[in-house]
């Protein structure tokens, strides 16, 4: 029962974590770069894994705070083959947002890739500044 309540509380955090894409230019001016870590798949919190699994068919973006860290998640939906990677170009604090810029990198023509569908995503962990996330 306690586990169910805990999961429900975490899901509520998902719902109330702001994810905005309508930002005026002046609001995304960089104050400082944020240190971040790309989270290994085995270290992703279960509640985030569940949300990724539910969302992976289409591109998605969401954030999750555990009270200490902010997890920023970006998925690029279904891709026709393996061999895709995601590059984090920037993570920084602005006056009103935590701003993240990622880029999907496809396999090169010389790469040997699996000929099965893939669902590339990335989970970035940074300090929780209690700011909404802006995805560039």
Number of domains: 1
Instruction: Characterize the largest beta sheet: strand count, sense, and whether it forms a barrel.
Output: 5 strands, mixed
- Strand runs, count: 9
Task: Give the neighbour order of strands across the main sheet.
Answer: 1-9-7-6-2
Please give the count of helices. 2
Helix content: 10-25%
Write down the secondary-structure element order.
HEEEHEEEEEE
Report the radius of gyration as a whole number of Å.
16 Å
**Percentage beta strand:** 35-45%
Pick out the low-confidence regions: 18-23
> On the 0-100 scale, what is the average pLDDT?
87
Structural class: alpha+beta
Report the end-to-end length measured between terminal Cα atoms: 40 Å
Instruction: Choose one word for the global shape.
Output: globular
Pfam family, one: PrcB_C
Keywords: Signal
Protein name: PrcB C-terminal domain-containing protein
InterPro entries: PrcB_C_dom
